[in-house]
Design a protein that fits this description.
There is one protein chain. With about 475 residues, this protein is of the alpha/beta class. About 45% of the residues lie in helices and about 10% in strands. The strands form three sheets. Strands 2-1-3-4-5 form a five-stranded parallel sheet, sandwiched between helices. A five-stranded parallel sheet has the order 7-8-11-6-12. The protein is globular and about 80 Å long.
Length: about 475
């Protein structure tokens, strides 16, 4: 274990203390290491808490309801640091994580670079320097929000007919107390829609608590949602409130609700019907008043037919529903979103905004976006960090070499109508178009995106035409 050197730390103790609203949480199952980190950090920060398990840390973050920095061990008794991080991303207030492990972490284990990754043993100065950077990051995020930032037009960017219709529905659905079901593909912005509903509702002054149900081990999900009492199970050293109580007088957003284990679904159904929960290990019901919004990327009706999801719970959750359109069906929104995201990402990364060159803008318009807005954001973040302060090119937007090879075919491969044979008077316009599409696809080795660029149409148009041909 790293020893604490008071002389090494002498200069840092005189540094100005940050505002007390930022909570520092050390999540470490080794008592000596946790005490060491707490001792070092307490000389600079007002509020430093220690948690010895992932569930205890999540409970503390939920009850805090404010900005936090988490010094997080990768290996924990009840869950991994990745699972704790997944919950941190779903909380309403900004949370920054520092992942610490005795083993070197690869990108996948560390959450694809979404946390600072450090290897034990951790020196005093390293711990303080990275914590200071993360504190600045969450404080900046808090101060950057204005009162109108949660309005539908600010959260749900786009001028397509689908998005304009969505923004007119949200204020109307927000007035109800009934459960709301959000459905759409992964990455379409379901959590943003849930936040918008909350801030348009009479509950807007209450908490908004977002929970990713897929992030918790099956054995812990009941404790995380309903809470537990001291002694309920090994490691339950004190009472703690679950997400339902944390969302009292506000809104609880349950994402990926289809991943809930079947035995727990009956308990969730009872909570929704009675407005009460029973913490694990307790015999006393606790009344809670929160509106529940749920979402899932999979087809829950199909899950009901397969016996993986309770039919009665499905109908209880699906009182009101709201469909979020995929990005490929939002004509013209991709570029507007890209410009908005570039500004936001540049502020987050603290670098200058780099514009998209013309070829990159055309590629964004034509790309089919199977990963929707999340894919767009990830591509832009990568491009912004790799473009060296210059205009972002198509190559910057590619995720790997294979994409680069297929994104720009040499002129000699351009189909330009070769191989298309017309029979005047015997073919309809639709048949001629279908023949042109098939010939172009064949020349582009079946790559719809390349074919769409050659034909001057959106890739989504080709997808729709091919589906219609197959029907």
């Amino acid at each position: 274990m790293t020893s604490y050197n008071a002389q090494e730390h002498h200069l840092t103790s005189t540094t100005c203390l940050p505002k007390p609203g930022v909570l520092i949480i050390v999540v470490e199952d080794d008592t000596d290491t946790a005490h060491l980190y707490q001792t070092i950090l307490a000389t600079r920060y007002h509020h430093v808490a220690v948690c010895h398990s992932g569930s205890e840390a999540v409970a503390r973050l939920v009850s805090h309801q404010g900005p936090a920095v988490v010094v997080l061990d990768y290996h924990l008794p009840d869950m991994t640091g990745i699972e704790v991080m997944a919950t941190c991303r779903d909380l309403e207030h900004p949370v920054a994580c520092m992942m610490v492990s005795a083993d070197r972490l690869n990108d996948q284990e560390a959450g694809c670079g979404e946390a600072i990754r450090l290897t034990k043993p951790l020196g005093c100065q390293t711990l303080l320097q990275w914590t200071a950077k993360l504190v600045h990051k969450v404080q900046t995020a808090v101060h950057g929000e204005g009162p109108g930032d949660h309005a539908p037009e600010n959260l749900l960017i786009g001028q397509s007919a689908a998005m304009q219709h969505l923004r007119t529905l949200i204020p109307r659905l927000a007035q109800s107390r009934s459960p709301l079901w959000l459905h759409g593909e992964s990455g379409t912005g379901k959590e943003l829609a849930a936040r918008s509903v909350h801030y348009c509702s009479p509950r807007s002054s209450g908490p908004f608590v977002a929970v990713n149900c897929a992030a918790f081990p099956e054995a812990l999900i009941e404790s995380m949602l309903f809470g537990h009492v001291k002694g309920a199970f090994s490691g339950a050293t004190r009472d703690h409130k679950g997400f339902f109580e944390a969302a009292d007088q506000g809104t609880l957003f349950l994402d990926e609700v289809g991943d809930m284990p079947l035995p727990f679904q009956a308990k969730l159904l009872r909570a929704l019907q009675t407005g009460t929960i029973t913490p694990v290990g307790s015999t006393r019901d606790v009344r809670v008043d929160c509106r529940v919004i749920t979402a899932c990327h999979r087809d829950l009706a199909q899950s009901v037919r397969e016996g993986a999801f309770r039919e009665d719970l499905y109908y209880r959750l699906n009182v009101l529903s709201l469909a979020l359109p995929p990005l490929r069906e939002r004509q013209g929104d991709a570029l507007m979103l890209a410009d908005h995201l570039l500004e936001s990402l540049a502020r987050e990364e603290r670098i200058a905004v780099c514009p998209l060159d013309e070829e990159a803008r055309n590629w964004i318009q034509q790309h089919d976006w199977p990963g929707n807005v999340r894919e767009l954001e990830n591509r832009l973040r990568r491009a912004l960090l790799l473009c060296d302060g210059k205009a972002i090119t198509v190559n910057n937007l590619m995720l790997n070499d294979d994409e680069r090879l297929t994104s720009a075919p040499p002129p000699s491969q351009a189909p330009s109508g070769v191989g298309i044979h017309f029979s005047p008077g015997r073919m309809t316009l639709r048949q001629i178009e279908d023949a042109a599409i098939e010939a172009t696809l064949e020349a582009c080795d079946g790559c719809i995106e390349r074919a769409a660029r050659q034909l001057g149409v959106a890739a989504s148009t080709l997808h729709r035409r091919r589906r219609r041909q197959a029907a």
